[in-house]
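4.2 Preliminary Data

To establish feasibility before requesting continued support, the project team ran the inverse folding procedure on a target of 378 residues. The structure was first converted into the token representation described in Section 3, and no sequence information of any kind was made available to the design step. The complete token record follows.
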């Protein structure tokens, strides 16, 4: 009865804001954020359409279901700082305002990455690679400007993203080549100086793989030994129907818990299409040519796979829940299946079904399974 009343009040509010179809789309039993209240925050990544209010259907879902948001692209270096001395904050400002207006936990993603960073960042005006000091200066200026602008408004920053290779060694990025391995420490220090309250995260994919996980453990220990405030490790969890196993996920979360840091599941989705790559990866530079066999569900997801996805999500959430003292947040990467980056990576133009809401914004069986998993608190 109370639940129904809440629905109706919520629906009326959403109706005013977004119109009938959006309000209907958000009329799902319960909500993810309420189901996991007191356990961890539940969120989604937003892209420009949702941030700018041009996707009423997704916005209605976000408001009804989530209490934290991440920017899919709006805060990446290339977007906010495309040219030397030129910052463009319009979309990022709207993103942060959206989160504040709706009392959400606002995540910043990201400050240092080897992708979506313009080439000029690493070069002087003659095109020569910068010296260590000059690049550090540039990094500091960027972090001070971006983190400083949203001081007290962005609660958590992915400071360094994907700095590790699969064997656990540091990725040979220009950050590493020019500055050396302490570019990571420096980035955390600059971010901490710019907003001492912000929770700082190291974020990566495939940390469920032992060698890469060991690399991340070494990294966290090094930062801790140097007194650098790292609050959490972000496990991206761009998963498949079979990998990582619940046991691998559990062991990974526990390995970071043992270091005294929190874990955030930062970019969750589950690919249901045939793997286009031998090994699991979320390396955005990977490209695979189109091929019919890699896109089998253009006309819809067979019920058997739909149920498999639901079971998979339930298994993952049971692991997150069992580790709720460590897991601070679970964020889906995008809102509905139609929004997902997995429709275009690593093969362009596929029809994927990796999230809890379908292309019409309706909750899928996987949504019900995630809600039901919350009732089985260990
Ligand atoms: O979702 C993002 C997509 O829209 C961009 O095209 C892509 C470009 O690099 O980045 C995607 O987000 C990535 C995230 O920033 C870091 N981890 C992997 C994510 C999926 O590629």
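Position-by-position output of the design step:
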């Amino acid at each position: 009865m109370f639940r129904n009343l809440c629905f109706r009040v919520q629906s009326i509010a959403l109706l005013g804001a977004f119109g009938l179809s959006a309000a209907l789309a958000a009329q799902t039993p319960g909500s993810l954020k309420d189901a996991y209240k007191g356990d961890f925050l539940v969120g989604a990544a937003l892209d420009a359409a949702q941030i700018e209010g041009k996707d009423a259907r997704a916005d209605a879902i976000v408001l009804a279901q989530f209490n934290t948001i991440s920017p899919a692209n709006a805060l990446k270096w290339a977007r906010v700082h495309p040219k030397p001395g030129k910052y463009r904050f319009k979309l990022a400002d709207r993103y942060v305002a959206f989160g504040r207006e709706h009392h959400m936990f606002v995540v910043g993603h990201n400050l240092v990455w080897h992708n979506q960073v313009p080439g000029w960042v690493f070069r002087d005006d003659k095109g020569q690679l910068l010296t260590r000091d000059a690049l550090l200066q540039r990094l500091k200026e960027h972090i001070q400007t971006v983190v400083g602008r949203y001081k007290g408004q962005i609660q958590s920053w992915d400071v360094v993203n994907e700095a590790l290779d699969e064997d656990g060694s540091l990725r040979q990025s220009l950050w590493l080549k020019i500055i050396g391995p302490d570019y990571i420490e420096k980035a955390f220090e600059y971010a901490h100086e710019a907003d001492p309250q912000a929770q700082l995260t190291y974020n990566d994919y495939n940390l469920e793989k032992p060698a890469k996980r060991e690399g991340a453990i070494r990294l966290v220990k090094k930062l801790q030994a140097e007194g650098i405030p790292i609050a959490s490790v972000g496990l991206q969890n761009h998963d498949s129907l079979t990998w990582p196993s619940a046991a691998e996920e559990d062991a990974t979360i526990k390995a970071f818990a043992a270091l005294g840091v929190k874990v955030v599941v930062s970019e969750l989705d589950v690919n249901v299409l045939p793997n286009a790559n031998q090994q699991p990866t979320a390396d955005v530079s990977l490209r695979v040519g189109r091929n019919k066999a890699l896109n089998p569900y253009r006309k819809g997801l067979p019920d058997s796979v739909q149920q498999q996805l639901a079971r998979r999500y339930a298994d993952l959430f049971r692991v997150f829940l069992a580790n709720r003292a460590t897991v601070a947040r679970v964020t889906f990467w995008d809102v509905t299946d139609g929004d997902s980056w997995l429709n275009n990576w690593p093969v362009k133009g596929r029809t994927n079904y990796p999230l809890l809401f379908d292309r019409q914004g309706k909750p899928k069986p996987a949504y019900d399974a995630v809600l039901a998993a919350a009732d089985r608190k260990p």
